[in-house]
Amino acid sequence: LAAWGDCPDDFCPDDAIEEGEPCGESLTGGCNMPSPGFGPELSCGDSVCGTSWAEDELRDTDWFPFTVADEPTQVTWTVEAQFDAVALIIGPGDCEHAEVIESASGHEASVSACLQPGDYWLFVAPNGFTGLPCDSGENQYVATVESCVIDPEVCDAPELSNCCQPTPGQAGCDDESCEAAVCETDPACCFEWDFGCAALAEDLCPDLCGIEPCETNCPPDGTPEGEPCGEDHNGGCNSDDLEFGSIACGETICGTVWADGGQRDTDWFLFEVSEPGEYTAELVSQFPGIVAIFSVNPANPDDCFEFVGTFGHSDTACSVGTATAELGTGTHAVFVAAGTEGGSGIFEGYPCDSGFNDYTVTLQCADGR
């Protein structure tokens, strides 16, 4: 979008509303001002043209009132700017209680939300606090209330947790289990719930964020794991009785795992290596999952396993995670559990009734089987 740096003279549509704030002044800074001031009130279909700036760790924020009158309405707010912009829908209510409902950033930033009847603000600002003085020649934007659709099927859907959206200035989110799972991965989220925290919530708490489970597609010749979700029959080196499942070359195991209340299910499948070489375990999961290969000593709880090779990671989009290892002869195990891409465990967010518990794991051996 390099063309945004040299926009034409007719960048602003003829029928657009003028913001009414000269660049460098702060008349429409909304709830960021000691005495809140707002831009023109917008209606469905309106466009507004304005300018914004960011310099010396300060930035211009423009707030435009918007009202949903009688029925829940799906509203889309789109900003096209010469600069990297932030577009927000904020509300409902007054400055003290309003929260960010949806957010996006970029030269073209669009947000959409189902809004209940009430008063809201549509927001534009630079995505940063410096490098955009008023004489930069890249200060213009046009923002449009693109659509207002009264759609009961959309607007009567369950409201998503605010864990699934960034809430600047807010510590944590409104679901204790999801908050614990995210903060365990990134402790900073318990001080401020930013874009990264919301992205983690989509991975760790997909049911709260309206994400539908993907299909892992157990093949017709797949082997059931044999452990009902919630029980522990193959916890391997993590179990008191050192119980293992088994897997053979070319076999696919179809199983489940869970992570809840600070604990998680780990599944271990033994196999014997008689031919040294590279072995591969391939995981497809409905949850953020890790797969690994260990050398194991099932008879010795004090020295049960040794990690070899690489971790693999699969996420809630049913992507493929692959672990590989160069193995010598002996006893080894394929390991599956909920975890992050770096190999850290996940211990919250995936109870057995979450709908995000299924996986398949397949072992490929050195001879190609």
State which percent range the strand residues make up: 35-45%
- What series of H and E elements makes up the topology? EEEEEEEEEHHHEEEEEEEEEEEE
Unreliable stretches (pLDDT < 50, length at least 5) are 1-9
Q: Rg, please? A: 26 Å
The portion of residues assigned to helices is: under 10%
Mean pLDDT: 87
Let me know the number of strands: 21
Shape: elongated
Distance between the termini: 49 Å
- Overall SS class: mainly beta
Biggest sheet architecture: 7 strands, mixed
Number of helices: 3
Q: What is the subunit organization of this protein?
A: single chain
Properties at a glance:
single chain, 369 residues, five-stranded mixed beta sheet, 21 strands, elongated, mainly beta, disordered N terminus
